[in-house]
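Please decode residue identities from the backbone states below.
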């Protein structure tokens, strides 16, 4: 069975891309959760659909269109958040609504509805060699940024203002991860699906926070869970002819429920509150 699984080149390509995304997306996700901007990923994934439709209409790569529109959307959100800091959630909601509205209109004009649908829910057969190279480049950048800015991210989680005073380049870190988040989400739409990619950004982190005692533990466990959820989901997708995005998300939800049950059994009288879970990200050891 395993030999048959790797027999086809498109399966090998998809597994490789899925493996890299399973590491990249949780790395982005833990930053988003720590900054309390987790729903930004949802806005970017929906906004990227406008770029997909634009690419299909204009005849260029939908992935390029998705990346361009997602990057514009990401920095649009950041600009609105700065202009109206008291309405941070509104900036995300406005961008999501605008991007999704444009995507719906352009989807009707796209020449192939089936191609557009594959970006909604993901496709195990759609990954090309160009996608492998693009994902590899972004994967290297995300991992490098996560390592280089690891200390800065910890400082920002504890207190953004104190981090800025202590010399942390908060603006640089935010800009880098905003751009990487946009590109990663756009690339992941092809395999996982634009409507579901935010789940892989949040669920591994949410699961890790149930048992992790520090930022480091949450960081490492999120990556491990991202890999497990993605590989199991993609195996189920291939074996039972399921949409990869749906299979991955259902696997992640099952994993989250298992961790919740584990904590309830191990420590039934001690329920971690939301604030305590968030505080985990401010502990370094």
């Amino acid at each position: 069975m395993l030999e048959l699984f790797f027999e086809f080149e498109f399966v090998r390509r998809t597994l490789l891309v899925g493996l890299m995304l399973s590491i990249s997306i949780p790395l982005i996700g833990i930053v988003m959760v720590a900054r309390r901007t987790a729903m930004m990923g949802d806005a970017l994934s929906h906004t990227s659909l406008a770029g997909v439709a634009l690419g299909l209409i204009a005849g260029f790569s939908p992935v390029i269109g998705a990346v361009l529109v997602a990057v514009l959307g990401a920095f649009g959100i950041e600009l609105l958040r700065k202009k109206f800091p008291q309405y941070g959630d509104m900036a995300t909601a406005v961008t999501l609504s605008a991007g999704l509205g444009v995507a719906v209109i352009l989807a009707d004009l796209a020449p192939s509805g089936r191609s557009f649908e594959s970006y909604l829910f993901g496709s195990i057969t759609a990954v090309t060699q160009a996608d492998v190279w693009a994902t590899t480049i972004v994967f290297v950048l995300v991992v490098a940024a996560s390592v280089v800015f690891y200390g800065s991210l910890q400082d920002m989680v504890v207190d953004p203002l104190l981090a800025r005073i202590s010399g942390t380049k908060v603006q640089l870190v935010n800009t880098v991860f905003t751009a990487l988040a946009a590109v990663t989400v756009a690339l992941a739409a092809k395999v996982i699906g634009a409507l579901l990619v935010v789940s892989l950004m949040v669920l591994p982190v949410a699961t890790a926070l149930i048992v992790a005692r520090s930022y480091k533990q949450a960081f490492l466990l999120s990556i491990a869970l991202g890999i497990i959820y993605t590989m199991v989901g993609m195996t189920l997708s291939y074996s039972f002819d399921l949409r990869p995005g749906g299979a991955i998300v259902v696997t992640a939800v099952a994993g989250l429920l298992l961790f919740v049950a584990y904590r309830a059994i191990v420590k039934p009288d001690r329920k971690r509150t939301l604030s305590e879970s968030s505080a985990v990200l401010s502990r370094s050891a």
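Observation: The chain has a mean pLDDT of 84.
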